[in-house]
Design brief:
single chain, elongated, five-stranded mixed β-sheet, six-stranded mixed β-sheet, 33% helix, alpha/beta
Length: 242
């Protein structure tokens, strides 16, 4: 008919909606009218997709999606991974992961999601070994090998930058690193890799994964135009994945 197909997507304002806006002209060329609806919470974007009020959403990482499906009984699936907002290990009193003193202190977030994430990042650098590296809710009690006898200072994620100088290493979320004047790509001693389980994903209701408009959006999100936008506008706090 030549009429535009409308595709509605729920998104967090930053960076998700900003990234989606770069896809509007790409999809328009294909006869798809991408409409972005911004939400400030992390519940309604999922229930809206489950109920059919939105076609898709883009705001969450996979562990959150899996937990939401389990606890809420929803039937939402990841269409594609788009970006990570990487957690990094930053220098405090020590400026090298290789030359840490025995008993070095490490500041980590004290909330369940981020603490487990921080410990997985430390494990990836060979500093500790966890009992189960598939357990995203690990705590220091789950460390089974600690050759450097690291000690852990567990504090709110937002306060870690302010105490970094008091510990040997600080594990900091990118949004808080940026707020402290740090550039994750340039300043972190180590960053989460692009195969991190915390990849932010485009999500739809199960059964709609192969919808042509949703697939077109997935392709647009991986276009050079969008990848370049992410690289140029977020100072390493957002990193596109392949």
């Amino acid at each position: 008919s030549g009429d535009a197909v409308t595709l509605t997507v729920a998104a967090s304002p930053t960076p998700h909606a900003e990234i989606l806006k770069q896809c509007v002209p790409i999809l328009a060329e294909q006869g798809i009218d991408l409409q972005i609806h911004e939400y400030s919470d992390y519940v309604v974007p999922n229930t809206a997709v489950e109920d059919g009020d939105e076609d898709a959403n883009y705001f969450q990482h996979v562990p959150y999606l899996d937990d939401f499906n389990t606890t809420r009984g929803t039937h939402l699936v990841s269409v594609t991974g788009v970006h990570i907002e990487p957690m990094g290990i930053y220098a405090g009193k020590s400026d090298s992961l290789d030359n840490l003193p025995d008993g070095a202190s490490v500041a980590v977030p004290n909330d369940a999601t981020n603490e487990g994430r921080a410990l997985l990042l430390l494990e990836a650098q060979g500093l500790i070994k966890l009992a189960d590296d598939s357990n995203l809710s690990s705590t220091p009690k789950d460390i089974v090998e600690n050759p450097k006898n690291l000690t852990f200072t567990e504090v709110e994620a937002a306060t870690i930058p302010s105490i970094a100088s008091e510990v040997d290493l600080a594990v900091i979320n990118s949004n808080y690193a940026l707020g402290a004047g740090l550039n994750p790509v340039e300043d972190a001693l180590a960053l989460e890799s692009s195969d991190s389980p915390y990849v932010n994903v485009l999500v739809c209701k199960e059964g709609n994964e192969n919808n042509a408009a949703i697939q077109a959006l997935a392709e647009a999100l991986h276009s050079d135009a969008v990848k370049n936008y992410i690289a140029e506008n977020f100072d390493g706090a957002v990193i596109a994945v392949d």
